[in-house]
From TrEMBL:
Residues 1-177 form the BPL/LPL catalytic domain. Gene3D superfamilies: Bira Bifunctional Protein, Domain 2 (3.30.930.10). It is an enzyme of class 6 (ligase). It comes from Flavobacterium buctense. The lineage of its organism: Bacteria, Pseudomonadati, Bacteroidota, Flavobacteriia, Flavobacteriales. One of its GO terms (molecular function) is biotin--[biotin carboxyl-carrier protein] ligase activity. CDD domains: BPL. Keywords: Ligase. Its EC number is 6.3.4.15. InterPro entries: aa-tRNA-synth_II/BPL/LPL, Biotin_CoA_COase_ligase, BPL_LPL_catalytic. This is Biotin--[acetyl-CoA-carboxylase] ligase.
Length: 242
């Protein structure tokens, strides 16, 4: 489980992708940084993290066969791996805000950015970026964010949390093919605001109300609309608002 540690980098995902192009890397090689200057979240959002206080890590997962685990399955496994890190550390009320924000006590504590490269043999290689607020306490300008230390009062070791995430990721990916139905059901149970009236926004700024029912096996968000019809949205077609 090689972990490359950097004092500062613009993006751990970008660094790991470039490194993988330049040399052979062992599967599950990780890059972690104490400061990330251009961290990205899903759909191009910025990931802001106080230097030295939070986990910022990217993990290389090589040659994943799609006949065993699809890209959509892979996303679910990663999300459940992240949730597992929190639950193993005593965080009880954990949810996933579609597509890949990790919530604790109804506030965002983490985020996932998965970047896949498809290969000619049908497999894919993935760089899994995970940011988790650990020891940061000041979120004055981020009212919807929080950290583990604010929730539990404990201080967290970044190295240990990095190792914990990699182990959780490996375990969930290994077990997923034989537990796919169970994993999908668990993920859907964890959905933030599931079965509750919620506000959504289209890319053009238009908003509407709906109720999240589930995420389908092909990665679409199923939303019950006011006219009792169910609409299915792709990743970039709609955003769930807080």
């Amino acid at each position: 489980m090689p972990i490359i540690k950097l004092d500062a980098i613009d993006s751990t995902n970008d660094y790991l992708k470039q490194l993988a192009k330049e040399k052979w890397l062992e599967n599950y090689t990780a890059v972690m940084a104490f400061e990330q200057t251009k961290g990205r979240g899903q759909m191009g959002s910025e990931w802001v993290s106080e230097s030295g206080k939070n986990l910022t890590i990217s993990v290389l997962v090589k040659d994943v066969p799609q006949d065993m685990i699809s890209i959509y399955d892979f996303n679910i496994a990663v999300a459940l791996a992240a949730v597992g890190v929190l639950t193993m550390n005593g965080i009880v009320k954990v949810n996933v805000k579609w597509p890949n924000d990790i919530m604790a006590e109804n506030k965002k504590v983490g985020g996932i950015l998965i970047e896949n490269t498809l290969k000619s043999d049908g497999s894919f290689t993935s760089v899994v970026g995970f940011g988790l607020n650990l020891n940061q306490t000041d979120f004055e300008h981020l009212p919807q964010a929080n950290s583990l230390t604010n929730i539990t009062g404990k201080n967290y070791d970044l190295d240990e949390m990095a190792k914990s995430f990699i182990k959780s990721l490996k375990l969930h990916l290994i077990l997923f093919p034989e537990r796919a139905d169970e994993a999908w059901a668990h993920y859907n149970d964890l959905l933030f605001k599931k079965d509750k009236p919620s506000a959504f926004e289209f890319p053009n700024g238009d908003r509407f109300m709906g109720i999240i029912k589930c995420v389908t096996r092909d990665g679409k968000l199923a939303v019950l609309l006011n006219d009792d019809n169910v609409a299915y949205y792709e990743l970039k077609e709609v955003k769930l608002l807080y």
